[in-house]
Every structure is written in structure tokens, then in C-alpha cells.
Design a protein that fits this description.
Elements lengths: L8 H10 L12 H16 L3 H6 L1 H5 L1 H4 L2 E9 L2 E8 L1 H9 L1 H12 L6 E6 L29 H13 L12
Parallel strand pairs: 2-3
Antiparallel strand pairs: 1-2
Length: 176
């Protein structure tokens, strides 16, 4: 087998001008470009997420209610988008009263009309942060001491309490 002679520099330039011997390597594809193809159909099917609502929540519901209520989930029920809001008991009626306004504002931030209804769920502690200041439990500073009675009414009530408490079980009538 006869060796082929190497091309001259001029011939090498001419060959490389028309074709490359090795393909040019491009970098790895961007993750965003790949995920866009996966996430776009999901967003079309399920709509924007709850994170966008949580980000704008004080603007949607108002500063006062935002500390007592939070968006819990976005659901589809009977073809309607339902925003579930978890809130303290007292704030539930205020949220229900402003339901139409809250739905309109939430739809504005989400774009379109993904939410048609609002559902309010009462909870003890709606936010992941601390409770509202008036509901924050205070640790007892010291065990309660019974102060000396100051009036005859207080003295009488104290005596009655002392008489009733220890004899509570003893005064039950025994069946005959």
C-alpha cells in the first residue's frame, strides 16, 4: 500500500476552506432552552404557580389581611380555577367579604382569568412566620400567687373557692 503524499500548504488551505475535517463542537445546550419545551405545556395545562401569588400577596389582599391569611393552593374543580386561602378565624369573614376583589387582583397578577372562585379555610396559624402580635403567647413570668383579699367580696369568693375545690370529689352523693 502506497502512502499518499501530504498536501501542500496551499492545497491544505483550499481543502479547509470547503470542508472541515472535524465538526465544530458547540457548548452544552442551555438548561432553560430544554426546560422551556417541557414546562410550556405544563404551564398551559395548570397555569401559573402559587409562588407568583405569594410574592405579590400583600398587594393582592392588603397589608392588614396579609399577616392573617395566605394563599394555600390553586386547584381545578369542575373546570373552574379555585384559590384556597388559609386564614385565622376572625379574618375569614373579611376575606369572604372581599372575595370578588381578591379574585380580580389575583387574576391580574397571574395574567388572564385562571381563578374563578375563592375558598376560605380557617386555620390556627395561617403564616409560616410568627403569629400576629396580639396572639403571640406570653410565657408565664412566675407562678400565680393568690394575693390577699382586698374587699369583702374578694374575701368571700376566695373562701367559697377554697371550700369547693378540695371537697369536689367528697361531696358527691353515693348511690344507695
Amino acid at each position: 500500500m502506497q502512502k499518499r503524499p501530504l498536501p501542500t500548504p496551499r492545497e491544505a488551505q483550499e481543502i479547509l476552506a470547503h470542508r472541515r475535517t472535524k465538526p465544530v463542537r458547540s457548548g452544552a445546550p442551555r438548561a432553560g432552552a430544554l426546560l422551556k419545551g417541557v414546562l410550556a405545556p405544563l404551564q398551559k395545562q395548570f397555569g401559573p404557580g402559587l409562588a407568583r401569588l405569594e410574592h405579590h400577596w400583600p398587594e393582592i389582599i392588603g397589608e392588614r389581611l396579609a399577616s392573617r391569611a395566605r394563599p394555600d393552593s390553586l386547584k381545578r374543580q369542575n373546570g373552574e380555577g379555585v384559590l384556597v386561602i388559609a386564614c385565622e378565624g376572625a379574618a375569614a369573614s373579611l376575606v369572604q367579604h372581599q372575595a370578588r376583589t381578591i379574585v380580580d387582583r389575583a387574576n391580574h397578577f397571574l395574567g388572564g382569568t385562571p381563578i374563578q372562585r375563592l375558598r376560605v379555610v380557617q386555620t390556627r396559624r395561617p403564616t409560616s412566620g410568627p403569629l400576629s402580635p396580639r396572639l403571640t403567647p406570653q410565657p408565664p413570668s412566675s407562678p400565680p400567687q393568690s394575693p390577699a383579699p382586698k374587699s369583702s367580696l374578694e374575701h368571700t369568693l376566695k373562701r367559697l373557692g377554697d371550700m369547693v375545690t378540695p371537697q369536689q370529689d367528697d361531696n358527691r352523693k353515693k348511690p344507695s
